Amino acid sequence: MRLISAILDRARHQVGLQLLLSALVCLVGPAILLAAVGALESSVLGWALYLVATAYLLTCLLMLVEANLAVRRRARPLPPPARDGWDPTVTLLVVAYLPNEADIIEETLHHLCHDVEMPDGRLQVLLAYNTPNAMPEVEARLHELAARTPQLDVLRVHGSTSKGENIMGALPHARGEVTAILDSDHHLQGDAAQLALRWIDAGYDVVQGRCVIRNSDRNLLTRIVAAEFEVIYGIAHTGRSLLTDTAIFGGANGWWRTDVLRQLGVDHRMLTEDIDVSMRALLSGRRIVHERQVISTELAPTTFAAWWRQRTRWAQGWFQVTLRHTPDVKASRVMSPWVRFYWLVMLVWREMFPVISLQVFTVLIAQAIIGLPFHGIRDPFLIGTTLVTVLSGAVLGAAAWHVGSARGRQDLGLRWFIAYCLLSVPYTVLRNTVAQAAMVREIVGDRRWMVTRRDPQTPRDGRRRRQQPTRPPVARPQVSRAQAAAPATVKTSTPTAETA
After folding, report:
1. Locations of Basic and acidic residues compositional bias (predicted)?
2. Is the pTM above the cut of 0.70?
3. What stretches in the chain show pLDDT beneath 50?
C-alpha cells in the first residue's frame, strides 16, 4: 500500500507518470487479464470485441440522429424580434489571464466595442482580467482605451487565479440585463447580440451561440479543429437542442440573464465551470437553447502541446461534472423523464465510451499474446459495426458542410471537410486517449489549471494580421458609467489556478 500511495503521490505532479498509469490501467492490465481468461476460454475475447463494437454502434447512431435533426431543420426559425418596449442593456464580459493574452486583448476589445450592433448606450464591454504580476505597459494601454471608449470598462480582479473568479469578481460591475461571457480571443458577429436577445425574450435563460475557428489557415491542426468545431456546433449541439430542447453553456459566446447568472454563481474549483453551471441551471429549471446563427470566432491551439492541454482540461472537467451531478440528474423532478435520460447518457456514457472504445486494442493485444488469429473480417456483426463507424464520420462531415458556417465553408473548403471525414476515426481515438488520461489525472488529484496558449492570428509569413471590422463602427455618444475609466479592483477567494 505504501508503494501504491507513493506512486499516486508522484503521479499527482508528473504528467508522464499519469500517462503511464493510464496505459497500464486501461490497456496493458486489461490485455493481460483478457489473455489469461482467453487462454482458458477463447470465446471471451469474441464477446469482449462484440461489446466494444456495440459501444461504437450506439454512439454512432446517436450522432446520426443528431445530424439528421440538424440537417432537416437547417433553417430553424428564430423567435420574432423583441417585444415593443423591451430594450435591454447588454454586457459583454471578456475574461482574460493577461500574461497569456496580452497580444490579442486590445484587438478583441476594439472589435467588440465597434462592431457589435446595439443601440447607443445599451452596450457595456467589461474586461475582467487577472495577472500574478503587474504588467504596466499593457495595463496602461487598456486604461487609455477605456478612457476614450465610453462603453468599455476595465477591471483587474485582484486575488483571482481562475476564470471563474474573474467572472464572479466582474458580476457586481455588470450593468446589462443580459450578460454574454466571452474569452479574450472571441470576436462576435455583428448581429449576434440582436439574435441572442430574441431567444431571451422568448423565455430562455441562456443562449449558447456557435463558435467558429478563424485561424484555420495556420497549420494542419487548426484546420482539423476548425472542421471539428463545425461538427460540434453545427451538428451535435444543434441536434441536441432540437431533440431535447436543452443545451449547455460552452464557456464562451453564452448569453445569460444576468440575474440568473448572479443567482447561480460560478464555481472556480471546477475545471469546466461552464458545464458545472449549465447543469446547475438545468437542475434548477432554467432553460438553455443553442442557436447556431449567434456566431463568434475564436483562435484554435496552434501546437499539439497546447491542444493536448486544452482537451485534457475539458475532459477532466467533464469527469468532475459527471461525478458531481449524475446523482442529482438521476433524482431530478425538474427535468422531464426524456431530458433526464438524455443527460444521464450525456454524462455517464460520455465517460464510459473513451475507456470502452480503446479496448479494441486490448482485445487485439490479448489475441496476440495467446496466439489466436483474428477472425473479425469474417464476422458479419463486426463488419457491419465497422462500416457504420467509418461511414458515420463521412456522414457527419457531409452534414457539417451542409449546415456549415459561411466562414467555415469559405476558409476550409470542401476538401478539408473531406479530410476530416478520413481522419475522424484516428482523431476520435486520440481524443479518447486524452479523456482516459484526464480521468487518471483527476483520480490521482492533479487539478492544476493547464493554460492554453493564445497566439495572435497570423498568416503563414508570420506577420500579424489585423482583424478587419465586419461592419462600419457605430458612433455612440458618451454615456454615464458606474466606474471611472481607471480599473476597479475586487478581492476574491483563495487562489486555485490560472485562467486559460
Report:
1. 451-461
2. yes
3. 459-500
